[in-house]
Amino acid sequence: MSHGPEYAQVERPLLEQLEGMGWNVVTGSVEVARGSGRGSFREVLRRDELRAAIRRINLRDGEPWLDEGRI
């Protein structure tokens, strides 16, 4: 797959910056949704990872405090 100038000048540098900040960058496929961790292309969010991240970053005195309803 050929990438145009927008990818080279904008998207790829951003992905590299996010990787440098500790983000997990996933390179998916335009043909197979599961390659990006989703069940279908209709899924906008990777819910399990989002829920885990919300729980991990919302700490009170070093302990998670959000219950399932708040997450």
Rg, Cα atoms, Å: 16 Å
* SSE order: HHEE
**Strand percent estimate:** 5-15%
**Number of helical regions:** 2
Question: What's the rounded overall pLDDT mean?
Answer: 89
Share in helix: 25-40%
Biggest β-sheet strands, sense, barrel: 2 strands, antiparallel
Q: Kindly, what is the distance between the CA atoms of the first and last residues, rounded to a whole number of angstroms?
A: 38 Å
Task: Write the SSE topology.
Layout: H1 5-20, H2 47-57, E1 59-60, E2 63-64
Antiparallel strand pairs: 1-2
Describe this structure in words.
By secondary structure, the chain is mostly helical. It has two helices and two strands, in the order ααββ. The chain has a two-stranded antiparallel sheet. It is flat, with a radius of gyration of 16 Å. The protein starts with a helix and ends in a 7-residue tail after the last strand.
Task: Provide a quick synopsis of the model.
The protein is mainly alpha-helical and 71 residues long. It is built from two helices and two strands. The protein is flat.
Task: Using brief descriptors, characterize the structure shown.
71 residues; mainly alpha; two-stranded antiparallel ribbon; 2 helices; 38% helix
